[in-house]
Amino acid sequence: xxxxxxxxxAINSRFFKAWGxxxxxxxxxxxxxxxxATLFSNGIKVDGxxxxxxxxxxxxxxxFDLTTGELQVPSGGPGALRPPRx
Length: 86
Fold this sequence. Notes:
The structure is a single chain. By secondary structure, this protein is mainly beta. Helices cover 0% and strands 62% of the residues. The radius of gyration is 15 Å and the shape is elongated.
């Protein structure tokens, strides 16, 4: 089983986004596959987004779009710690 990914990312003051396609090579379908994109600054997690693909068939291309909501950069810049989201 091998996986090929082609993806792009974007960030601005309002959101963090990763999108692209995944090609799963294999013989058995997967019931699901979870993708995670995490934004780090100076080794500290700033934000992240997840995406679940359902019924991932082998030898098929699957597109994805992981986008955070409102990106909240803490005072002190992207490397500053912030309280966890509730």
